[in-house]
Amino acid sequence: MKAVVKWTDGVQFLAESGSGHAIVVDGAPENGGRNTGPRPMELLLMGLGSCSAFDVITILNKARQNVSDCKAEIEAERADSVPAVFTKIHLHFVITGRDLKEAHVKRAVELSAEKYCSASIMLGQAGVEISHDYEIIEH
């Protein structure tokens, strides 16, 4: 896996994945940025949420659950000193569908957290306290 991050201006960068997708990364105006893209640490959270949601959807589809929507809401706390690493991250999954079995949803979230989500497991091994929960919306 590869990526390239190219400085464009101020504290703005163009990050391009090895698969050819690009995203602008920028800082807040008070830090010299123009707010044209997410901050680097926000990207990390977005990657974590995407990685875990990917697992949850894949597992639920394999269990033949009729999912119509999946949302991962992520909240994080950071250390007050430099480096301002994440200290706590909470992922809240909102799973919408028809006749969803709670046991399947619970197991999908657990499997992502404990076995499949590389981002979550890596951050947890680095000492970040990561928690997960879910809610089911019948549609």
From TrEMBL:
SUPFAM superfamilies per record: OsmC-like
InterPro entries per record: KH_dom-like_a/b, OsmC/Ohr_fam, OsmC/Ohrsf
Organism domain of life: Bacteria
Coiled coil (residue ranges): none
Pfam family, one: OsmC
Membrane-crossing segments per the record: none
NCBIfam families hit by this protein: PRK10738.1
Protein name, as recorded: Osmotically inducible protein C
